[in-house]
Specification:
2 domains, seven-stranded antiparallel sheet, six-stranded antiparallel sheet, D-amino Acid Aminotransferase, Chain A, domain 1, 307 residues, Phosphorylase Kinase, domain 1, alpha+beta, globular
Length: 307
């Protein structure tokens, strides 16, 4: 990453993504701040979704605590008091970081999305329906949309700066990063997905697919980074409503996508920026989906202290 600007916090702003702002603390640490920005079809909406950034940060932190001992991860602190204790310059900005900031170990990021698919959905279904393949490799005949993969498939993708990521094969990853790194990324991705799948299943949620990112820390350790098993990085389905053979209702920004689909079909939006204005009802429904996912997975509502 290259420094690009100084943002509203007294730290160097390294990168602004669709949702997160990444700040440099020092050579070894970063501060990730999740906003309430929301995107769909690769376009960032003008409206903000209340509590979304807090859900993404706090759910990631919850998952990382469940993964202790299974995989090295980048989280150093996620509560404002601990972050301010470590970075005192942030004290006047407590309101800006509470609930939505995470102090993290800095890593050299591998340029690969580590996707694990437990079910045939999304871009994987589109490719299979058209060609019977996933990343160009053949899948069994006769699969239906949302059918379960047994075992799950490790299905990496490129990290696109703009537009959609592109599915690639494990062999492609090995050519880019080396066989040892590719094997480690697959092993760790499968371990984390399996732990997440089992914990979510006990709470009535299917994790249909998810993507992970990894980096190498200054000691050379391969480390799980960024968000983990959130509605933005994963496809969550309600187990009681699962019915293979078509798309499934999901705990994410589906109300937003549905609204934008109507806007596109009606000709009121061409699918590019600037996006159409969102009704308050769509914003509220999207916020409710994120809060519901948090409560169902963790067993408790998002704490009032971060709302």
């Amino acid at each position: 990453m290259m420094a690009s600007a100084v943002g509203p916090l007294p730290l160097t702003l390294l990168r602004t993504g669709k949702v997160r702002d990444v700040y440099e603390v020092d050579a070894d640490r970063l501060l990730l701040v999740a906003s309430d920005r929301v995107s769909a079809f690769d376009v960032v909406m003008r409206e903000r979704v209340p509590h979304k950034g807090a859900v993404l940060t706090q759910l990631t932190a919850w998952w990382l605590r469940q993964l202790g001992g299974l995989v090295a991860h980048h989280m150093l602190a996620d509560d404002a008091d601990s972050i301010i204790s470590a970075v005192p310059a942030l004290a006047p900005h407590r309101d800006a970081i509470v609930g939505r900031a995470m102090l993290c170990v800095r890593t050299d990021v591998f340029p690969v999305e580590c996707v694990v698919r437990g079910y045939l959905s999304g871009s994987a279904w589109k490719e299979y329906a058209a060609h019977g393949t996933l990343a160009g490799e053949s899948l069994p005949n006769g699969l239906r949309e949302s059918d379960r993969f047994d075992p799950p498939r490790f299905s990496p993708a490129t990290k696109a700066e703009h537009g959609h990521d592109e599915n690639i094969t494990v062999a492609d990853v090995a050519r880019r990063l080396g066989h040892e790194v590719a094997s480690t990324l697959e092993r760790l991705s499968r371990l984390v997905y399996a732990r997440g799948r089992d914990l979510a299943s006990a709470r009535g949620i299917i994790i249909a697919d998810t993507k992970f990112e990894f980096g190498r820390d200054r000691h050379g350790a391969i480390t799980l980074i960024d968000e983990v098993l959130t509605p933005d990085s994963s496809r969550f389905w309600a187990a009681e409503r699962y019915a293979p053979g078509g798309p499934q209702p999901s705990f994410d920004k589906q109300p937003l996508r549905d609204h934008l689909d109507v806007e596109r079909r009606s000709g009121r939006w061409n699918g590019e920026a600037p996006p159409p204005a969102l009704p308050d009802s769509v914003v509220a429904a999207t916020s409710a989906r994120y809060l519901d996912a948090f409560a169902r997975l963790t067993g408790a509502p998002l704490p009032l202290s971060v709302l």
